[in-house]
Amino acid sequence: MSQERWSEVDVFIEERLLDPDPLLDEVLAASAQAGLPAIALTPAHARYMHLLARVHGARSILELGTLGGYSTIWLGRALPSDGRLVSLELNPRYAELASANIERAGLAGLIKIIVGPALDSLRALIAEGTDPFDFIFIDADKENTPEYFQSALELSRPGTVIVTDNVVRDGAIVDADSQDPRAQGMRRFHELLGADRLGPRRVSATTIQTVGAKGYDGFTLALVER
Ligand SMILES: C[S@@+](CC[C@H](N)C(=O)[O-])C[C@H]1O[C@@H](n2cnc3c(N)ncnc32)[C@H](O)[C@@H]1O
User: Fold this and answer.
1) How much distance in Å is there from the Cα of 141 to the middle of ligand 1?
2) 159-186 pLDDT per residue, tens
3) Residue of minimum CA distance from atom 15 in ligand 1
4) How would you list the strands of the sheet with 60-64, edge to edge?
5) Strand locations in the chain (E)
6) Is 222 helix (H, G, I), strand (E, B) or coil?
7) CA 207, 169, 57: angle at the middle one, nearest 5?
8) pTM of the full predicted structure?
9) What is the position in ligand 1's atom list of the atom closest to the CA of 117?
10) Number of alpha carbons in the 13 Å side-chain half-sphere of residue 130
11) Is the CB of residue 218 less than 8 Å from the CB of residue 48?
12) Is the dihedral of CA 195, 60, 117, 174 positive or negative?
């Protein structure tokens, strides 16, 4: 199977299952115009995240990696009117554009973007004694994913769902000697999850491989048990 076919199938799915959404089209266009990299979730994947948050009845969401706010808006739309979403972004320029996009989506009252390295922002949230989140989406720099996951656990409660994106990396996670620090990050992430199985289990997790317009990758779904 080819990338071309995977992309065609994503278009097929979008045309049949996703409603036209001029606002989200504008968000993507504004992001492209501002020179942001085209690394947001695909529409089908973003809708999957939205549905997962709704299925879970999430009232509070933490996101790592805002970019232009595309996934943030999809997740924000899954919240009830008194919900809250905190999104962490390193790049102030991206965060500024995301804020404008979120405002345009009418979600500014629910969503707060914290600018800075996610590790620092997570430390600050933990130190402040922030209430645990119901749903956490890890989609920032891939190298630090194991550290992000450990911090996410500190911001969780039993029942919190943690989704981590881009964990398969074209299959490179099986290459022990991969020179790609992002693939190594995802190997360490899986080793961390594997080690958790050996002690008093903190999470139950699985990884699903995916193909689509963004190639061959995958995500990990983890349920916090205690
Ligand atoms: C894959 S993109 C996020 C895509 C977004 N979730 C979406 O689907 O629309 C990753 C984002 O993480 C941000 N990032 C990279 N390193 C970071 C760090 N150390 N702390 C916080 N954000 C970081 C990047 O600037 C980028 O915006």
Assistant:
1) 6
2) 999 999 999 999 999 999 999 999 999 9
3) 141
4) 111-115, 84-89, 60-64, 135-138, 161-165, 215-224, 203-212
5) 60-64, 84-89, 111-115, 135-138, 161-165, 203-212, 215-224
6) strand
7) 40
8) 0.98
9) 20
10) 22
11) no
12) positive
